[in-house]
Amino acid sequence: MAKHGKKYTKARASVAVEDISIKEALKKVKEIGYAKFDESVDVGVNLGIDASKGEQAVRGSVILPHGRGKVPRVIVFAKGDYAEKAEKAGADAVGSDDLIEKINGGWLDFDYAVATPDIMGAVGKLAKVLGPKGLLPNKKLGTVTFDVADVVSELKKGRAFFKNDKQGIVHFSFGKKSFDVNALHDNFSAFVKALMAAKPATSKGKYIKRIHISSTMGPGIAVSPEDVL
């Protein structure tokens, strides 16, 4: 069992055992936060899915109304006119073979990668580097597209992605502890709406089983699924 410090233990002791409303939970996260940096506010949702079945995989994206607290760094693999459009849209780095070579050399200073379909054959060579970090452009997520300008713009505005892990849990960061409760609630509500829309057709029974929110260093706080829904 992991050992925690005195500050965590004190924060844990002030958290109710029973489920509480999302507004109460958000207020509690801000109240008990003790880290000296601006922690992220995260949610973990246990879903009623069979994570071993591909057809029950849950993945999607959402534009958070208030962003995540920082503007993400976006790179684009593209050539010609598409490269120019990506640059105009605000991409932090644009290139093709040169960008691939740079990443192969160890550079990973970005949060999202977008690629046009015609260059994915070459970008696919980075699968072993970018795949495990969740940074490989993906058609299902909309990051493999010729509409590079629109995607870059949306990512800069706060579009974020989510998917379930092997235990059927979706982990997602939806803001910073410095956000006010209303901003956090807006972001959380947008995420839940997108999560509900991503429910697999083959998933039966209760879809959202348990919800916990926490700050980066803080204890988990149980939130009532009924209140959220």
Series of H and E elements: HHEEEHEHEHHHEEHEEH
Please state how the strands of the largest beta sheet are arranged side by side. 7-1-8-9
Relative strand content: 15-25%
Question: How far apart are the termini?
Answer: 33 Å
- Please tell me the overall pLDDT: 91
User: What's the CATH H-level homologous superfamily of the largest domain?
Assistant: Ribosomal protein L1/L10, rRNA-binding domain
Question: Would you state the CATH class of the largest domain?
Answer: Alpha Beta
Number of strands: 9
Q: Biggest sheet, in brief?
A: 4 strands, antiparallel
Describe the structure.
This protein is of the alpha/beta class. It folds into two domains: 123 residues, Ribosomal protein L1/L10, rRNA-binding domain (Ribulose 1,5 Bisphosphate Carboxylase/Oxygenase), CATH 3.30.190.20; 84 residues, Ribosomal protein L1/L10, domain II (Rossmann fold), CATH 3.40.50. 33% of the residues lie in helices and 21% in strands. It has nine helices and nine strands. The strands form three sheets. Strands 7-1-8-9 form a four-stranded antiparallel sheet. Helix 2 packs across helix 8. The longest helix has 17 residues. The radius of gyration is 19 Å and the shape is globular. The mean pLDDT is 91.
